[in-house]
Amino acid sequence: MNQPLGGAVRRIGSREFDFSRQVAVMAIVNRTPDSFYDRGRTDSVGAAVAAAERAIADGADWVDIGGAKFAPGPAIPVAEEIDRVVPVVAALAGSGAVISVDTFHPDVARAAIAAGAHVINDTTGLHDPAMADVVAEVGATVIITHSLAAPRTPYPSPRYGDVVDEVVAFLRGRVAFAESRGVASDRIVVDPGHDLNKHTLDSLALTRRLGEVTALGYPTLVALSNKDFVGESLGRPRDQRVEGSLAAAVYCVLQGARIVRVHNVRETVDAMRMIEAIEGWREPVFLEHNR
Questions:
Q1: pTM tops 0.85, yes or no
Q2: pLDDT, tens digit, for every residue of 127-146?
Q3: How far apart are CA 225 and CA 30, in angstroms?
Q4: Residues known to be catalytic
Q5: What is the pLDDT of residues 29-58, one digit of tens each?
Q6: Which listed CATH number (3.20.20.20, 3.30.1050.10, 1.10.287.110, 3.90.950.10) goes with 9-279?
């Protein structure tokens, strides 16, 4: 199994992760009426907080709160996005979980960090350079994701020569940019951006060759959960993709991914803890069989 390069031990918020022998499970909580998977079920503050608390009880190490989805659509005013995410962040600030906010707006990031967020998850790959400045200023962690489109805009029929080579080059360049603006290397996570401005064959290639992404030497996050490349590969609708998502997540972890962003927390926690037990990274919960 590939091991992450560089410093494997990371302190994020109050949690310490040894990514040489640990996989972090990140739960998705969206405060949006039009989210890809939950279709607005956690749009209210109370529902979002309750969903996050359930995820933590189910074993999530990390909660990722979103106030605007990646998909194309009308711009969400910054003040509205802040109103969506900051109350949830504040309510979870003492939970012990890592809290990240999925945003590409520096002002939203600043407000979320002030409320207690530890990580900014920028699915636009620092499209706004000021995001790097905000993260560097407060010493937060940033997730740098590969995508091509400007925020909330369509990118029809994306074409790549070699999608993995191009994603790796993009991430290498954006990491270098972040570091040039003062973001510490041990505060950077990378994400190849499965399905973001990519066809299913692109996402499958990224999954198959994820070791080329993890070789960059930064903890790698994979956001595979219930995505269209899983559905198209299996011929399954959105509510029948859990097994395919878990298979893809396990495949990625075996190539060095160390953070998995998911909707189905309990199932994913069990899969990741089983990998850790098989690899000898953690002890079984109990030993009785044939003792």
A1: yes
A2: 999 999 999 999 999 999 99
A3: 14
A4: 227, 261
A5: 998 875 555 555 656 899 999 999 999 999
A6: 3.20.20.20
